[in-house]
UniProtKB/TrEMBL annotation, chains A, B:
Residues 1-26 form the signal peptide. Residues 77-555 form the Amidohydrolase domain. The keyword Lyase does not apply. This is Amidohydrolase 3 domain-containing protein.
Length: 559, 559
């Protein structure tokens, strides 16, 4: 794999400081002026003007008159009454998935199976005969009958074309008979794959619904995505991200092949934002990190130094591993996707390679297993320096809530998951366990750092929805009035910090991005409204007027 | 002093648990039902019904149907659409001062010296000849000329009657010539009292303005307040508190004489709320605590186990001790009211007596001295168990902000101070130091517990104003738009916790009050609106419909 530098953290940072300070000397300077610049820098929370050089390094912040005097020949950008904030960083998304969503049938917000079939028929019109019909985003909780669909629901409309439809959370898939036909192993009987489940009828025949690891049975047999499609998906995904004000994304699960696609884009300067890639499990990408050292592309927009693992499944499909059975399914406690000893082995391997670990954990058992494994691997000597993360950290036992902070474990959470799940989450786990769910404030109170994100395309890539959900805990209609479990709301400032400085910290990037401070990169957004001044209800309709990365616009609204 | 029990913390708590559980057995039970009960209990944040016995102990919380079934013979109180919350606790007020304010000329919000004189003339009509005319609440920052007034401003109107007028912050007083005449020592010359300042003109004559300890020169010579007046002031102050939804007050500076007045009221069951009294410095009350042990009245409404000290003065009068000179008075760095070695001596004495220390500190130097003294006195072995407090913790150096949490020091802060001071606070300390001022969020982020209060009568006793200021950092008109330093705003839940559970913790009372949990006391308020559901702008006009202490109404709105 080309482009890996033989370096560990210290060297990477040293190199970047040299690179950032080089162009300052005789550089062309831009002075940006705004109604208000929220820097997210504690020592100087606000400014009216910011100077940066044409290499994209911030030179100074302050009053307009002072900066114009200091840089009399500077190019001037005045955004008028607009507010400037650091570029938003989504600490957990799936860029290829976001791009692919545009190449797949969108089943989000379907209200019935009939609705699904109608969308599939429309989408299939443009597909060549025999090509797989891929879709994503269905959620049986949105349908009248609320139970899992079957292959039979699809077979009448699609007797020959394979159809494969991921659930909204990505933890279950619904296939037709043509899709199941590609699996070599007989899907009938009573066997189950490790960490997954094939749903079967009373006769032992598969119903067409596959949970977690069982999805691999079909997906590993599907025709592979070619390099061009991969690049196209990444480009589409990144474009969508910058249009929403993102200047950085932590891509939660990137294969070596995908990383190579990113590298080609980075070499061609075709990456509009920064991607912090996490290697997808104990595979080729992790091995490359262990062999060659932590990776950063010289252009500063691509990095891989983290590992993404899955401890369990999702709550919607009852795949999240719970300490006690589900409140609405007493025979089921969910699934651990990795055995504790396997989690220990891989986290130890990552630690020894200097690689940050970020593990998906939704259920209270999933989270406990991860905390146990992290505590074992990190030991008691400055565990916080590793900055290991729990992705989602969705439902925690009250006894585990205070365990993150002393380990320095970052909670990488997605505010919109709370507001998407709130109609049924308490059905799943009951009134006692729900108290430790989506518990942003309780985690903050225990000293845990929150890195915020969206989990796009599971949720919308739009970070405004995350800022809104974090501060209101309400849906788009403002319901429930006053918010769901309002005690766990964040302030607008905390929400913004979760999408900027604390997300940067979670990616070891707080010395370069996440706040607007001399020496850091000029990654920022221009907003018509001031997100810290308007009522939180207005955060979901903020107008993103422009997105800048390294001092250059990567998106500008057309109005 | 009667009523002191020979006990230390452990015994006091043991006794109170026995007392609280005694009446449960055959007690008359009340079931209260409401639209929503915010318990402030993490394990069960909300309920619809609460049962308590006629001893005032909470028996159960839950769904209405379940509690009515459990207590079929219970008296029923249904507050309809109203919301119930734990009774509010003001962690820093001055009850006698609040009551006395009704016995003194009110000079708050005077717009000029002429305005002051008019109010004094009106007030003096009811006074007997020769009686002192006392007033409080003036603030020269509200006047056109913004400099300190003089005795001459008063002498024409009051040539013979002594006039003594405290500044709004209580850290300066303005007297006329008749008032200065009672001081035996010659006030002319160039001498100054320790920890205070007599303002003098070019000829060395006193102008009539006395700062901090200099106020004692006049006040110690004034005729003493008699016992009847003291009791009357306490009763007036407590009545005003419960009318605003307070069920507890930490009285920040209570003399032995005042404590005795409280004890007489407690004996007569004439205390409508709980008072956590702090001994007023190294005097008779502290000596009594050291001699007789921590004090709690058997009725559960009066306690003294803390010591109030003053490290420095106030910001408005530039008496707060700063590490560097004031930005608007380069020759002045404020005043330390206690030398470091004196602070060490008294804090060590308090520690050895098992007494909690609560020290007023406004300036960054004042706060640093207190942290230094606390660190020295508490040592490194579980300092948090002492729960020592800094009162106001108003301006902290960035290096001191993170020092509170590891010492377990509680920041006892008054949200309305921020919104009262915001028009001029940055003039006093400049743009760099203002960042560490009124820094609620930064303190929370560092793990510090915030106990909230008002400092009444310096600010209004109305805790709704504190909830509003904490969540908006704006004045009554909502200005500045979006709030002053919005990054330090609290959520409504955090603000409510600061006025309930965390205030209770600051008074070692979280096992008895501060949240609604079986076994705790039924101290609660009934609010027309849900404070966690309405926009923060509505918090200042919440309707307090009733205040209950020990399960009995101590205030009910007349509508």
């Amino acid at each position: 794999m080309h482009g890996f530098r033989h370096s560990r953290l210290g060297q990477v940072i040293a190199l970047s400081i040299v690179a950032a300070s080089m162009p300052v000397q005789a550089a062309k300077v831009t002075v940006l002026t705004a109604s208000r610049i929220h820097t997210m820098d504690t020592a100087r929370p606000r400014a009216q003007a910011m100077a940066f050089d044409d290499g994209g390094a911030i030179l100074a912040l302050g009053e307009t008159a002072a900066l114009l005097k200091q840089y009399p020949k500077a190019t001037r950008i005045d955004v008028g009454n607009a507010t400037v904030a650091p570029g938003l960083i989504d600490a957990h998304g799936h860029v290829a998935g976001l791009g692919l969503a545009r190449l797949r049938a969108d089943l989000v917000d379907t209200r019935s199976k009939a609705d699904v079939l109608q969308r599939l028929r429309d989408f299939a019109r443009d597909l060549p005969p025999g090509a797989w019909l891929l879709g994503r985003g269905w959620d049986q909780n949105d349908w009248p009958e609320k139970h899992f669909p079957t292959a039979a629901d699809l077979d009448a409309a699609f007797p020959d074309r394979p159809v494969w439809l991921s659930r909204v959370d990505g933890h279950a898939a619904w296939g037709n008979t043509a899709a199941m036909r590609i699996v070599k192993r007989d899907l009938r009987g009573d066997w189950q794959p490790d960490g997954g489940q094939i749903l079967r009828d009373a006769q032992g025949a598969p119903t067409g619904l596959f949970i977690d690891a069982a999805m691999d049975l079909v997906e590993s047999a599907m025709p592979a995505m070619d390099a061009t499609t991969t690049e196209r998906a990444l480009v589409l995904g990144m474009q969508s991200a910058v249009e929403h004000g993102l200047t950085g994304v932590h891509d939660a699960g990137v294969s070596l092949t995908q990383l190579q696609a990113y590298q080609r884009l980075a070499d061609r300067k075709a990456m509009p934002l920064r991607v912090y890639a996490m290697a997808d499990g104990d595979g080729a990408a992790l091995d490359a990190l262990c062999r060659n050292g932590l990776y950063r592309h010289a252009g500063g927009r691509l990095e891989m130094r983290a590992l993404k693992l899955f401890a369990d499944g999702a709550l919607g499909s009852r795949g999240a591993a719970m300490l006690e059975p589900y409140s609405d399914d007493h025979a089921n406690s969910g699934l651990l996707l990795m055995k504790p000893e396997e989690l220990d082995r891989v986290t130890t391997k990552a630690r020894d390679c200097g690689v940050q670990v970020a593990t998906h954990a939704i259920g209270d058992r999933g989270n406990r297993e991860v905390l146990d494994a992290y505590a074992k691997a990190l030991g008691s000597t400055q565990p916080a320096e590793y900055r290991w993360r729990i992705e989602h950290a969705q439902i925690l036992s009250p006894t585990d809530l205070p365990r993150l902070a002393p380990l320095g474990v970052i909670a990488s959470m997605q505010p919109t998951h709370a507001t998407s799940d709130m109609p049924w989450a308490e059905d799943r786990v009951g009134p006692a366990r729900i108290v430790g769910a989506y518990a942003w404030r309780q985690l903050r109170d225990s000293g845990t750092r929150l890195a915020l994100g969206s989990d796009f395309p599971v949720e919308s890539v739009d970070p405004r929805l995350g800022l809104y959900a974090a501060t209101t805990r309400a849906d788009g209609d403002g319901l429930p009035v006053g918010g769901w479990h309002p005690e766990d709301k964040l302030t607008a400032f905390e929400a913004l910090r979760g999408f900027t400085l604390d997300a940067a910290y979670a990616g070891f990037a707080e010395a370069r991005v996440g706040s607007l401070v001399p020496g850091k990169r000029a990654d920022f957004i221009v907003l018509k409204q001031d997100p810290l001044a308007i009522p939180p209800a207005g955060l979901r309709t903020l107008d993103v007027q422009a997105t800048y990365v390294d001092g250059r616009p990567v998106y500008q609204a057309t109005r």
